[in-house]
Amino acid sequence: MHFVDLKHYASEQIQEIFSIADRLKTNPDGDLLVGKTFILFFPQTSLRTRTTFECGIRRLGGECVLFPPETLDRKEELFDTVKYLENWADGIVVRHPDAAKVRLLAEHSSIPVINAMTSDNHPCEVVADLYALRQRREDYLELAYTFVGPIGNMCKAWADLADTMNLRFHHVCTPENRLKEPGANYRFHTDLADILPQSDVILTDSLSEQYRNAAYIDAYQITLEKLRTARPGAMLNPCPPFFRSEEVSRDAIDSAHFVGHEFKRDLLVVQQAILAYCLFGGL
After folding, report:
1. Residue 95 has what pLDDT?
2. pLDDT tens, 229-240?
3. pTM of the model
4. How high is the mean pLDDT of the chain?
């Protein structure tokens, strides 16, 4: 089984991944992946995702072979690339900007292909975030999730996860950033002040250059003053790398609303669980 697009997963499957993660947390250095080899395609700039995949595989006894994502840009057809890799590997973890290439790998591969990020989505990251929220709030499925910022891979991934898990999902940004093919759980807004009082989890992503201007930041930057208008106990979960004084203010990051750097700790165990689910269908 592949893990490429959340829109192809049901809520029961995500819950099974969470259950596997729960079990792996009690046995963090097991032998689940002994004898398994994974081909990883990661750029040098990948920090958190690459570290957690490599460490997660090795802690369970598996082996990694690392290539830069540009390896997949060669003239050789991806069909041939993956058919050769199947001879020696048990799974492929790929971070590549072109989502179509990741989907094509999965289409032709008889071994699991895991999407570690594309410019179109970031499924492992958002599933791990929801798992971390599950540890903090038993009512995590009842909360209101508000993504503030332009359309990007994180916004799209959260929108997909909201449909899969039936989450209340709000997207706040400038009018041209409305998703063109929204799911049933997607609600778009242009006024941050209108939706923050209804929000439990505030999500952001780093800004491209065109949005790093005074007008955008004044309207949409998450500040402590704005966070104080959200629901009691509201949590700020900026996708790293985040940049103080751009999508989030310094006082927002320094506040109790920020979920903290330890929030990402379970990214490792959730990615282990995704690998286990794709390889074995469960534990």
Report:
1. 97
2. 999 999 999 999
3. 0.95
4. 96
pLDDT over 70 (residue 4): yes
Residue 124, Cα to own-chain centre: how many angstroms?
Answer: 4
What DSSP assignment string belongs to the chain? Answer: --BS-GGG--HHHHHHHHHHHHHHHHSTT--TTTT-EEEEE--TT--HHHHHHHHHHHHTT-EEEEE-GGGGGSSS-HHHHHHHHTTT-SEEEEE-S-HHHHHHHHHH-SS-EEEEE-SS--HHHHHHHHHHHHHH-TTGGGSEEEEESSSSHHHHHHHHHHHHHT-EEEEES-GGGS-SS--TTEEEES-HHHHGGG-SEEEE-PPPGGG-SHHHHHHH-B-HHHHTTS-TT-EEEEPSSP-BTTTB-HHHHTSTTB--GGGGGGHHHHHHHHHHHHHHS--
pLDDT interval class at 283 (50, 70, 90):
low
Q: Which residues contact 78 (CB under 8 A, 6 or more apart)?
A: 72, 101, 104, 105, 108
Query: Region 178-201: what's the mean pLDDT?
Result: 95
CB–CB of 162/154 below 8 Å?
A: no
